[in-house]
Specification:
Elements (H helix, E strand, L loop, with lengths): L23 H5 L2 H12 L6 H15 L7 H17 L1 H11 L4 H5 L1 H7 L4
Helix pairs in contact: 2-5, 4-5
Length: about 120
Amino acid sequence: MACVAVTWARPESTYTDKWDNINVDEILGSNRLLKGYVDCLLGKGRCTPDGKALKETLPDALEHECVKCTGKQKSGADKVIRHLVNKRPDLWKELAVKYDPDNIYQARYKDKIDAVKGSA
């Protein structure tokens, strides 16, 4: 759901790779950093430039199965999903309520979500 491998939409075939070298492990390993990104995505806090880009791109990436994501963005998204599902289900649920209130994406990606459960 939350792709911290942040992206910025542009009218080309993939999102910009400007944010591809963000250290996703550092963000996931820091409650302060992770909470900052989640608060940004939820509209509860200020956004860094990369957080703002993620917030603007996330709905499109969810809707279109991340087809415009670069390889690093897909890898980062998988890592973030695995972390949130297994270690921060509270944040996962908050993001799901905001970005998937009708449970459309949870249903669409059920097999992928179930596959990462327990594989933190």
